[in-house]
Amino acid sequence: MKPYSCDLRQKVINAYNSKEGSQRQLAKRFSVSLSFVQSLLRRYRSSGTVEPKPHGGGQIPKLNNEQLALVGLLVESNNDWAFAYFGTPS
């Protein structure tokens, strides 16, 4: 899921600072969750920014470079081997 835009984040902060409603009311007004508003306010107070955090990086690869190279060699030497396990290509 993409992070909310900085524009929307700043609007939530501005509305909260202008006392335009409670956190729950602002969440409903901007169609976001209450927990988003709470964490945005916490982040803004602690760091002074509304920028989203950087991407976490995803899953750690299951195979290291040596293992990937070995699989490549096995497939190169006998490419029918892969079809026995994974089926023929479409």
From TrEMBL:
<dbReference type="InterPro" id="IPR055247">
    <property type="entry name" value="InsJ-like_HTH"/>
</dbReference>
<dbReference type="InterPro" id="IPR036388">
    <property type="entry name" value="WH-like_DNA-bd_sf"/>
</dbReference>
<dbReference type="InterPro" id="IPR009057">
    <property type="entry name" value="Homeodomain-like_sf"/>
</dbReference>
<protein>
    <submittedName>
        <fullName>Transposase</fullName>
    </submittedName>
</protein>
<dbReference type="Pfam" id="PF13518">
    <property type="entry name" value="HTH_28"/>
</dbReference>
<feature type="domain" description="Insertion element IS150 protein InsJ-like helix-turn-helix">
    <location>
        <begin position="9"/>
        <end position="56"/>
    </location>
</feature>
